[in-house]
Amino acid sequence: MSSSSMDLLFTLLLLASSVALAKSSPSVPAIFTFGDSIFDAGNNHFNKNCTAQADFPPYGSSFFHRPTGRFTNGRTVADFIAQFLGLPLQKPYMELQIQISNGTLERLPSNGVNFASAGSGLLLDTNKVMGVTPIQIQLQQFQTLVEQNQIEKSIIKESLFLFESGSNDIFNYFLPFDTPTLSPDEYVNAMLTQVNSTIDQIYKLGARRIALFSLGPVGCVPARALLPNAPTDKCFGKMNVMAKTFNRRLEDIVNIIPIKYPGAIAVFGAVYGITHRFQTFPARYGFSDVSNACCGDGTLGGLMQCGKEGYKICNNSNEFLFWDFYHPTERTYHLMSKALWNGNKNQIRPFNLMALATNITL
């Protein structure tokens, strides 16, 4: 082969690799996050009317080395996804509003906003007495920002929208204080009605890349020890049946999004299956305990919130699936996030978040 031919071949290979790199480089400028404590980056902390808090030690101790309002010892799934995309962590909406109102911030950051509120649900009445921000109000907050042109519409179209809610609704269905007026199926139907409404609303506001995450095995959280009818030697089957029913129908909703909403693409994160695999093969994932809270007290560590007077804490949170009575450890979130980012169709479908973020599917 002549020298000129070699030069041409090298140039073509260089161009091909550049095109491939361009196709695989994330093109997401921002993340907008809605949901509950799985995502909350501190909104409840900045809401002084809210009693659902994690703004005291040892929350945040493993990564931030201080409490941030996140209900774990470090980063959440939303944080890890932002880092995988090379974006700074999204700040809580409530913090940003305070900074704008007092003049310490001129405009919203370009990397997105976190609207999630721990303890919130899909149903308006879920933990209402605690002053949480329900999904409906989170959506109103986002809509107001869009209508006030505080978020560029061109950015919205390219952004990633993360959505996870429903665990608190289902856990509360089994609280002993009130007899449910709806059957489990009717209750799940009411939850899914709100999911459909949420998708419709964010699509009208410009969302096109949407990730909906399933509920985890809610019936396995250590806080089930607080419920008089829940077993503590195994997961609460009735609660998990409701979660799985919700998840199956949530995936049906995800599958019709590209048909119902032209130009939109959506993925279903199978968080239940990912977590169940951690529970089934704990040693494979480096866990020594997948039942008890690392931080808490009482049966399963589930009778007291981490950080409250008299709490106990484990020696190595990395070996525990659960950080406190409801929430996973940062390490669990990290493993979960990696599965959602570049996992196979058993973990996230029809494709993973990396594909959603790199325009491979658009």
Automatic annotation (TrEMBL):
Keyword Iron annotated: no
Signal in keyword set: yes
Signal peptide positions (record): 1-22
Keywords annotated in UniProt: Signal
Domain of life: Eukaryota
One Gene Ontology term of the molecular function aspect: lipase activity
Pfam families xrefs: Lipase_GDSL
Similarity-based family: Belongs to the 'GDSL' lipolytic enzyme family.
Protein name: GDSL esterase/lipase 6
